[in-house]
Design brief:
Number of strands of chain B: 10
Largest interface: A-B, 18 and 29 residues
Radius of gyration of chain B: 18 Å
Oligomer: heterodimer
Shape of chain A: globular
Distance between the termini of chain B: 23 Å
Largest sheet of chain B: 6 strands, mixed
CATH topology of the largest domain in chain A: ABC transporter involved in vitamin B12 uptake, BtuC
Number of helices of chain A: 20
Number of strands of chain A: 4
Strand content of chain A: under 5%
CATH class of the largest domain in chain A: Mainly Alpha
CATH superfamily of one domain in chain B: P-loop containing nucleotide triphosphate hydrolases
Shape of chain B: globular
Order of helices and strands of chain A: HHHHHEHEHHHEHHHHEHHHHHHH
Largest sheet of chain A: 2 strands, antiparallel
Bound molecules: adenosine-5'-diphosphate, magnesium ion
Distance between the termini of chain A: 38 Å
Strand content of chain B: 15-25%
Number of helices of chain B: 10
Radius of gyration of chain A: 25 Å
Strand order of the largest sheet of chain A: 1-2
Strand order of the largest sheet of chain B: 6-7-8-3-9-10
CATH topology of one domain in chain B: Rossmann fold
Helix content of chain B: 25-40%
Order of helices and strands of chain B: HEEEHEEHEHHHEHEHEEHH
CATH architecture of the largest domain in chain A: Orthogonal Bundle
Structural class of chain A: mainly alpha
């Protein structure tokens, strides 16, 4: 066997999945990097974060971890929508039905039922499930509901599922609010104190680090399962149904069966996400059925890229971080609702214009531009801080690496100095002058970061292109390394 | 070719009837798209269906494969079972499948995935590698194996016609209905498709072809059925049809030039 080829193959495989692998590694090691207590620190990275985190971009470690748990929950939800609508082409406009239902079922089963006297011997006087089991159980209940809806709406051709899913959450939400069901549903206010996996009584505050570990594990496992399904022969059948129902049916595919199957799988994972969300917020309320949940998840999946399970997760992380960490601190809560809808809409339009298949399937130069644009924005936000270079007073490997990175980025972005100033002046003028916000120092750094992102991503996209043109004009191809790329 | 043809004619009388169409009608709000049609198809036959545009040929295929429910009439499979009105996937499992008049590939899937899909419902428990081999074999039979990783949307029309054919063949049907398999193909591409059809038929598959390119059709098939305004107006060998006065006035005489 030719070892060189063997390693080259493996390297190619790794390179193809570079974004997945680094993303997963980052999620796993994040608590250590952030220096959360009770986690082993990673020598260089922890040092670097200690400096970078100082500028207050991400808030406290606990806050950052809890937001990432929320990202994970949305990631599962968006991926679950994608397996139905992106893979099978059956659009659901009301996925929040499973989100809300699972929250309630999780509450009912984990707080327990009074057992019928006849069954006391079998189950004890009060029957309840552990919160983790309740989570899976509510997933199954959601799948069951999906089968019922599917039998009604998916057996006939046409856009019936879209219509049915549009109304069902509204009906269920108003049913749950009715006085007559008060003991069962808690009426308008729902239930406080939903027990979660870590604090089964539901009364204590949740432990952020452990909840982060829990939600990231659930994210990895459930997205892993969904990806296995998507890449299996079932996924292939789902896609063939999306591409052409009639052709698939003429080949012997039982449309109703596979559509209902996809719906049930999707509902199961949406239920898991909903149950986790209820545990995260410690409440189960009728607003979980809201249309805004259903539409947010669609926008996340579309921005991330439909028809690729990972796309939903990417979209969920990007948008949740944008809303919760950046916009949430820049804008007062009174206008936040409007601003985040505006941001969603703008991002949707921009993504569909420049990356019609979403971020996860963008061209590789676009993906690189996003990653480097974020890095640029980060360093631009860090560099001007006056006491920043204080870290050089103590010499360690982390400090030196950080310093070299800064030097490199500064050199790379020298041509961007005009971009940098213009974006800062215009951006802050819009925020402070036009919108009349008075930004606190904490909000200011976030606002600047956001503005730098807007300027940095296009900059990172065009920089290599301009560089290449200049190189070809003034230098030609590299002397010996690199291939000649005729334009 | 001529020897196999005559051998077939000899054995014709011994072959069993695969499907019998009895009084089949389909009306679209007064328009009689298919009107009281009767004929039989024997196992292993290669049959052509001709008729001017709007004669009801595609509608007949839709009825045979379950995409439309007949207004009236029966489709008797193997002289026992009436399959009229069953859903398409059930009919496909009973061994009747079709291609469409316009190519309908799964656009975002690649060629290999396109031919994998029809193997899935029959072989739920086979291993993925076996499934892949079968799908690759389906592509080899239509000379598309070297393009197996190309997504269907970038393939040219001639390749898509053969891909559609390979996909339908992968169902391993007893009877295959081809709706205008030569439409839009160059002479060379048409020749390739013709060869593939002939090979499949020689292996025992019953094939029914709707086609406007009469030259190819007439040299390919052993029997021709003529439809006109939903009615069956003639049936026989290509030679008999070419000499049938009613057919000539209805179809060949007026429009043949357009299709040659
Ligand atoms: N789904 C439909 N609804 C109404 N009319 C139809 C439908 N399908 C076909 N027809 C009509 O039936 C007649 C036969 O059509 P078709 O079977 O497509 O003819 P062809 O022999 O050219 O394939 C045409 O007049 C067509 O307009
Ligand atoms: Mg037709």
């Amino acid at each position: 066997m030719d070892w060189y080829e063997f390693f080259e193959d493996i390297w190619d495989e790794i390179k193809d999945r570079g974004y997945y692998i680094s993303g997963i590694a980052l999620l796993i090691f994040l608590p250590s990097i952030l220096g959360a207590s009770d986690t082993p620190s990673i020598p260089i990275l922890t040092d670097i974060y200690a400096i970078v985190g100082n500028i207050g971009l991400f808030g406290s470690t606990n806050f950052f971890l809890i937001i990432l748990s929320l990202c994970a929950i949305w990631g599962i939800f968006a991926a679950s929508w994608d397996i139905l609508s992106g893979y099978t082409g059956q659009i659901s406009f009301g996925h929040a039905i499973f989100f809300g239902l699972a929250a309630y079922v999780g509450y009912w089963t984990s707080t327990g039922f009074q057992v019928d006297p006849l069954l006391v011997g079998l189950l004890g006087t009060r029957f309840s499930l552990a919160p983790a089991v309740a989570l899976i159980f509510s997933g199954f209940i959601c799948a069951l509901l999906a089968v019922c809806i599917g039998i009604l709406a998916l057996r006939v051709k046409g856009p019936y599922l879209a219509l049915v899913t549009l109304v069902i959450p509204l009906i269920v939400a108003s049913l749950f609010k009715l006085e007559i069901f008060y003991t069962l549903t808690g009426g308008d206010h729902g239930f406080p104190n939903v027990p979660d996996v870590l604090t089964p009584t539901g009364i204590l505050d949740i432990d952020t680090l452990n909840f982060y570990i829990f939600s990231i594990s659930v994210l990895l496992v459930s997205v892993g399962i969904m990806m296995l399904i998507a890449y299996s022969r079932y996924g292939l059948v789902f896609q063939s149904i999306r591409e052409d129902e009639d052709a698939a049916e003429s080949l012997g595919i039982n449309l109703a069966f596979y559509k209902i199957l996809a719906f049930a799988i999707s509902a199961f994972f949406a239920g898991i996400a909903g149950g986790m969300y209820a545990q995260y917020r410690s409440i189960a309320v009728p607003s979980f059925f809201d249309t805004s949940f259903s539409f947010s998840v669609i926008i996340m999946a579309v921005i991330g890229g439909i028809g690729s399970i990972s796309g939903g997760v990417v979209g969920a992380f990007l948008l949740t971080i944008l809303i919760e960490i950046l916009l949430g601190d820049i804008f007062p809560s009174s206008v936040l609702e409007g601003v985040d809808i505006l941001a969603f809409g703008l991002l949707l339009v921009i993504t569909l214009r420049y990356m019609p298949y979403g971020v996860a399937r963008a061209k590789s130069d676009q993906k690189k531009a996003i990653v480097f644009g974020l890095l640029f924005a980060l360093s631009w936000a860090i560099i001007p801080i006056s006491n920043f270079f204080e870290f050089l007073s103590s010499i360690s490997i982390g400090n030196i690496i950080l310093f070299l990175a800064m030097v490199l980025i500064t050199i790379l972005t020298l041509p961007a100095i005009p971009v940098f100033f213009v974006s800062e002046i215009v951006g802050l003028f819009v925020l402070e002058g036009l919108m009349g916000l008075s930004l606190s120092p904490k909000a200011l750094i976030k606002a600047k970061f956001l503005i730098y992102c807007i300027a940095g991503i296009p900059f990172a996209y065009y920089l290599p292109k301009v560089f290449k043109i200049l190189r070809l004009r003034f230098w030609g191809v590299w002397p010996s390394v690199g291939r000649y790329e005729p334009e | 070719m001529t020897t196999t043809f005559s051998e077939k004619q000899v054995s014709n009388s011994q072959r069993s009837v695969l499907i019998e169409v009895q009084n089949l009608s389909k009306h679209f709000e007064g328009l009689k798209a298919v009107d009281d049609v009767n004929f039989k198809i024997k196992a292993g036959e290669l049959i052509g269906i001709i008729g001017p545009n709007g004669a009801g040929k595609t509608t007949l295929f839709n009825l045979l494969t379950g995409f439309l429910k007949p207004t009236k009439g029966k489709l008797i499979l193997d002289e026992k079972k009436n399959i009229a009105g069953l859903s398409p996937h059930k009919i496909a499992k009973l061994g009747i499948t079709r291609t469409f008049q316009l190519v309908r590939p799964f656009k975002l899937l690649n060629a290999l995935e396109n031919t994998t899909v029809p193997h899935i419902p029959k072989s739920k428990l086979t291993r993925s590698s076996t499934l892949k081999n079968k799908a690759t074999w389906s592509l080899i039979t239509v000379d598309l194996a070297e393009k197996k990783n190309y997504p269907a949307f970038i393939l040219p029309h001639g390749d898509l016609k053969r891909l559609d054919f390979a996909r339908a063949m992968a169902v391993q049907p007893r009877m295959l209905l081809l709706d205008e398999p030569f439409a839009g193909l160059s002479v060379e591409e048409a020749f390739r498709v013709e060869r593939v059809i002939r090979e499949a038929n020689e292996k025992g598959m019953t094939i029914v072809i709707v086609e406007h390119k009469l030259k190819i059709l007439m040299r390919l098939v052993e029997r021709v059925i003529v439809l006109h305004q939903g009615k069956l107006i003639g049936e026989g060998t290509p030679k008999e049809i070419a000499n049938n006065d009613e057919v000539i006035t209805a179809y060949l005489g007026t429009e043949a030039k357009d299709y040659e």
